[in-house]
Amino acid sequence: MGTGENSPRPTKKKTAKSRQSSSSKANEPQFVQLITPDGERRKNPDFDVDLSDDEYRGLYEDLVVARNLDAQGTALQRQGHLGLWPSMLGQEGAQIGSGKALSANDHVFPSYREIGVQYARGLDVISAFSLFRGVDLGGRDVHTDKFNMYEIVIASQTLHATGYAMGVTRDGAVGTEDGEAVITYHGDGATSQGDFNESLVFASVFDAPIVFFCQNNQYAISEPVTTQSKVPLSQRATGFGIRDYRVDGNDVLACYAVTKDALSKARLGEGPSLIEAVTYRMAPHTTSDDATRYRDKDEEEAWKDKDPITRYRKWLENAGLADEAFFESVDAKADEAVRTLRDRVINLPDPDVSQMFDHVYVDNPVELEEQRRDAVEFRASLEEGSDAR
Question: Is 275 exposed, middle or buried (0-12, 13-18, 19+ CB in 10 A)?
Answer without folding.
Answer: buried
